Amino acid sequence: MQSTRFTTWVSFSLVAFGISVVLTWLVVQNFTSALSAGIVTATTTYIGIGVNNKQRIKEERTLRHSLRSQIQQLEYEEDQLYHSLYESTSTKEQLEASILALQGECHQLLQRISELHAQRNLLCQDIALIQKQQQQKEIPLQQAQQQVQLLERKQMQIKHSLELKTTQMQQTEMKLNAVMQELERVQFELFEKIKQEEGIAKNAEILIREKELLEQQVRELQNRINSEDNPQSSSENSSALSHTQKIAVDLPQEWEEWFEFIEYLSEEERIVFRAILEQDEVSLKNIADRKTTMPEVLIEALNNNALQTFGDTIFSGGESSAIPEVHQEYLNVLSKPLKLEFKDFLALPASEDRSQRLPEGS
Questions:
Q1: CA 333 to CA 337: how far, in whole Å?
Q2: What is the spatial distance between Cα 177 and Cα 44, in angstroms, rounded to a whole number?
Q3: Residue 237's Cα: distance from chain center in Å?
Q4: pTM for this predicted structure
Q5: From CA 54, how far away is CA 57, in angstroms rounded?
Q6: 131-184 pLDDT tens trace
């Protein structure tokens, strides 16, 4: 590189020498003066180029030193950024761990609250049972008062524990407010997935209903086959059917699906159904005692049969008695008086098809 620079300097000097000799000779017309002027010009040009080159080299060194300083400053800032990134990552991991811990505590508190609610419901049931026993068996007043006081103490203890848990829940909720902001995005995604699952569930319900209809058609075909194999039973069923059709001449059209519902009931279920419609609580309890069960279980069985027939339940639990309340949409059909009441059809004998199907359903 230095040889190249030297060659360049010499070239510039020779060019300056030639130009100076030619110009001086043209002006003075003396070759010696022209040659002297050319030598002076070449020397001056060479020295000027050397001084300029040294100045440029000095400026390049200064610029190089400045660039090195900037590079070192940038490397220092890069190290600072890496250190800050590491600290941010550590802080993020600590926050995620604290969020998981808070979620665990929240889940435990919710479980504890549900347990306390269950205990409170049990205590309320115990209180209601004690009141019923007091009305039916006339429990001595002093013993009942002691039991009530004991239950009240337990209730006060539960209330106190609930208040403590409520305070803890409030504190936990304050902590969870910050966490909930982070969980909103996840909840939105879950909401979208739930929508998809609801669509799948609706399709599943439609498929289940179609399956039930197909099973009902299969059972009808089996009944027809059985009727063809047993002419005597077929004649009995046809006579019962004709009897039902004869009675249904003056009945509302909406009762047709209720005849199908009655065919699914056993003899005991018909008695239970009639007792509910007649508001006969004593008969309902006697039937439950004979079957060593509770009236609510018998009512739930009727609702399950109604769910299979209508796709809806008939009764809802009564608040003050064992007799449930009839849904408003079925109240006119089951209670409105006509020439006959619907409960009178519960006296019809249960079909053998129901007694054959009952073990399969159970």
A1: 9
A2: 84
A3: 51
A4: 0.30
A5: 5
A6: 888 777 766 667 778 888 888 888 888 888 788 878 888 887 787 777 777 767
